[in-house]
Amino acid sequence: MSFKKLIVIGLALMLLVGVVGCSDDDSVKKYNLTVEPKTDGTGEVTVEPLKDKYEEGKEVTLTPSGKGEHSFDHWEGSGYDGNTDNSLTVEMTNDITLVAVFKDSVAPSSPTIEDISTGTYNSNQTFTISGETGATIEYSKDGGTSWTEYSSEVTLSKEKTHNLVARQTDDAGNTSSNTDAMKITIDKTAPNWTTEPNITTTADASSVGISSQVDEEGTIYYKVISDGVTKPTASEVKSAGNSNSISADTIKEITIDSLNAGTEYDIFFVAEDSAGNLQSESRVKKVEKVGESGVVINFQIGGGGIGVQSVNTKAEDKIIITEVELIIYEESDYDINGKNAKVVKNKTKTGSSLSDIGGIGLYLPSNNNYTLVAKLSGTINGKVESGIYQGTTETGILEAGATKSITMEVSLN
Description:
The protein has 413 residues and is mainly β. It has helices at 3-27, 234-239, 354-357; strands at 30-31, 33-37, 43-48, 54-55, 59-66, 70-76, 88-91, 96-104, 112-114, 119-121, 125-130, 136-140, 148-149, 154-156, 161-169, 182-186, 193-201, 208-214, 218-226, 242-246, 252-256, 265-273, 283-287, 294-302, 305-313, 319-330, 343-350, 361-363, 369-380, 383-385, 389-390, 395-397, 403-412. InterPro entries: Bacterial_rp_domain (IPR044060), Ig-like_fold (IPR013783).
């Protein structure tokens, strides 16, 4: 075969191969694959292998990854709606367009409850709540058992303790933790007496004991007024400044002192709870004549003589009389200290009890005007005192055979 003929055959074969090859490429179908995040900046998808077009039947692996606070949630498009495979393998049988949905997976911070704080109040209280823009805010008045969607200022008016918390849910459905609970007590009712003030300790020389009880924790105020004075208002009783704290349903003992002997008092009481609810009306307790820190001596005069009939103290638990000295002065120029006065008679008698002293007496030699003074010794609160009394006086004409009873009150120096 000639060389020229071989060249012609070779060229023919090359042309045939080229024609066949071109025919095969045109017969293989190729498809487009489009993948993108639903929202820019939320995530990205890695495509393996990455090509402009994919031959029919070719498998492609798609791997999504979130950015920042976002994480992959699901696929949308081309029959893959709702698919949550984080690594998805697709077979190219047609053009495919997929959207990767990335979701915010971080819960928002708790909202802020404003214009109110934990405490007890005697009036309605309001509050507001602030949170993230677009978030749904809810609040609960029972610590999180039941929830109400917040829209505007809320007023607490029911008399009870409200355990207030709040939370918020963002657009992605992430719910925050609850706020710290606020304990809000609404109390608009004044306390009631379960035991009204009453005397438990008999009035002595300067004080009296009172007991009372109310149904709420708070304060008892009192005001001491001389008997017969106009009744003060509840606010006036409080402003007197005399107060004692009191626990709920617990008997409170109060000692009221600095009272004057021989005086009758009206003591007015009013109660206020810890929320500041003051009773509208005060209660009065009448204290009869407060015990006197002195001694009463009863004398019997007759037959030209004078004697002690009885000696009584007004506060026997504090004062014990052990000696009585009777001194009779001429009336003229008498001075309580005995100056410029002539002693007509005097006599002293001692004893361990009042009955021992009761027999002391003096004989009066003639009818005349006299001044009678008694000086006593004894103990005060167990301490021995001498001459602790300066007597008051009693004067008059003592007629022979006449009988007269007189009472002389002797008070402490």
